[in-house]
């Protein structure tokens, strides 16, 4: 019987949809239905273990799963609060679910810097990361542990400030809070334990990681095509982010050339406007679906 590689994923929440989408772009075919704990990938020997994100680091460490996709913030927190050191490490950064763990205070508290936290109360669902930060900074403050809705703590009077995840900052603003310090930056990561996988699983994991790498690179990479005056090619190439050798094709009976290049970074509207100002015309920016180098 073929061994199946098991991947632990968040069942439902902010990480779930992007994790499923990433695996689908890697060619895995599966359907997520209702309450099932395991989803079978139809076209590869892979099973998806669908759980709460907080359990993923220990499931990977304890061999309930070979690898996992989780927010770096959760991995760091679980490692700090675990009784014994968790055998789970980052194997690959995935570039989605970017957020920051920040300290934020209510506008009425007058707190605008961590140096003012001494003797105050800080509400959080991240006692591990917060505790380490306070210890490293030599700040004596009380950590008030909550299971959720941390942003409400100052308004109900149980803390002066909070330590919580922030992405756009809209939730903080809606609750009259302002972030004054970032204590951890996070993105989704692929994690694995130090155990050696069977050669079969190892080969499958290597293949999956090559595909993930291709998906991440292609999402950041664009193909640009334009027509340009011959004498402006050098200046135009300078403007193209992360492209080294564009293809230049002369256009019959004209002073123009067609230029095509792969750009490894996003191309913004401002760049297109600058290209046009240099005389570029018929500018097309195309997405790249798959890449393998
Ligand atoms: P679970 O039910 O699985 O325990 P949860 O409520 O702990 O879920 P979610 O709110 O779904 O967690 O967030 C999962 C992860 O998504 C976070 O740990 C973090 O890595 C990431 N994330 C990205 N943006 C945000 C944000 N604005 N707020 C909170 N988490 C975010
Ligand atoms: Zn959680």
Descriptive notes:
This protein is an alpha/beta fold and 293 residues long. It folds into three domains: 5-96 and 188-218, 3-Layer(aba) Sandwich (D-Maltodextrin-Binding Protein, domain 2), CATH 3.40.190.10; 99-186, Periplasmic binding protein-like II (D-Maltodextrin-Binding Protein, domain 2, 3-Layer(aba) Sandwich); 221-287, 2-Layer Sandwich (Alpha-Beta Plaits). The protein contains eight helices and 15 strands. Strands 2-3-1-4-11-5 form a six-stranded mixed sheet. Helix 3 (72-81) crosses helix 4 (127-137). The model has no long low-confidence stretch (mean pLDDT 95). The structure holds adenosine-5'-triphosphate and zinc ion. The site of zinc ion has 3 residues, from loops.
What key attributes describe this structure?
293 residues, alpha/beta, D-Maltodextrin-Binding Protein, domain 2, Alpha-Beta Plaits, six-stranded mixed β-sheet, five-stranded mixed β-sheet, 8 helices, 30% strand, binds adenosine-5'-triphosphate, binds zinc ion
CATH topology of the largest domain: D-Maltodextrin-Binding Protein, domain 2
Percent strand equals 25-35%
Calculate Rg over CA atoms: 24 Å
- Overall shape: flat
Give the mean pLDDT.
Answer: 95
How do the strands line up in the largest sheet?
2-3-1-4-11-5
Structural class comes to alpha/beta
CATH superfamily name of the largest domain?
A: Periplasmic binding protein-like II
